Amino acid sequence: ARAELAAQLRAFGDAACAIPVPDFCNNPDCVTARGQSEAELVLGRSCMCGGCRVARYCGRACQRAVWAQHKPACKAQRLRQQQVVGAD
Q1: What are the start-end ranges of the E strands in the chain?
Q2: Residue 38: what pLDDT?
Q3: How far, in Å, are 27, 76, 78, 81 from residue 84 at the CA level?
Q4: Would you say 49 and 55 are in contact if contact means Cβ atoms under 8 Å apart?
Q5: Is the pTM of this model over 0.85?
Q6: 69, 10 in Cβ contact below 8 A?
Q7: What is residue 48's DSSP assignment?
């Protein structure tokens, strides 16, 4: 039962890291942002995903670390943005 719960929690964590969260480092394993807000850590100059321009990271290392998980959400966000622009 514990192993199953652990697997479910890890799967949830993997899915959650694919969802862009604009106010925090989007790397769920980030340890630098746990004590301070991202804005305090990077003085408002966070790394932003160049594709979707929604997901933010406290630094390049965090951005690279979760790219594989973020990529599907990034692509979906870009498609939504293109649809909105095309609808105008």
Answers
A1: 47-48, 56-57
A2: 55
A3: 27, 13, 10, 5
A4: yes
A5: no
A6: no
A7: E
